[in-house]
Amino acid sequence: MKIEITRRRIIFLILPVIAIALAVAVYPYIPWPIYSLDYYGTKMGFRVNLRDAKDVPVYPNEADVRSQIINQWVENVTIVFKPGTEQANAHYAVEVYEVVNKIAVAFSINFGYMPNFNVVNVTSYEGLKGKNYNPVIALVHPMYSNETSVRLDDYVIFISGKNSTDLKEQLRNFDIAVAKFLMVALDIKLNN
Predict the structure, then answer these.
(1) What is the pTM for the complete model shown?
(2) Where are the beta strands (DSSP E) in 18-162?
(3) What is the residue range of 111's domain?
(4) Domain tally for the chain?
């Protein structure tokens, strides 16, 4: 049996090879969403795509924020929040859970111990005081904030989500601010 090689058959044979080669070449550059990662052998899941959180501003800089929270001198971490509606308080609980679990893992891996965590509600974010052995993490709900950011001010780290008329967007802003804080604290870098 003789197979006749025509131009059409050559094209149909070469096209899949070109398509596969192109897919293999482009695949690493596609910015896939990142909802979990391996942190020194521990799988960590996040509530939001980390790529969405990477552009949240950090003041004064990421290194200063990281050094305040993840260092061997920390004995206690105090997390404060200003209570709001029932829904806002429930969202605080979710964010506190995220922060405590991931920071505890970081301490366990990096230093072999876990600091104590205290959660305190406050009437105001003014006058908060932290110390090098007891940093304060202030969770600022969008109803009290006009920006999405992570801000360090004298041993107090303010994690703020921007207010919006859309409740879903408010909560997303708060989620990405908390994710950015965790990325900074855990020294998570994204390639693209």
Answers:
(1) 0.84
(2) 36-39, 42-45, 58-59, 76-81, 116-121, 136-140, 149-153, 156-160
(3) 36-185
(4) 1
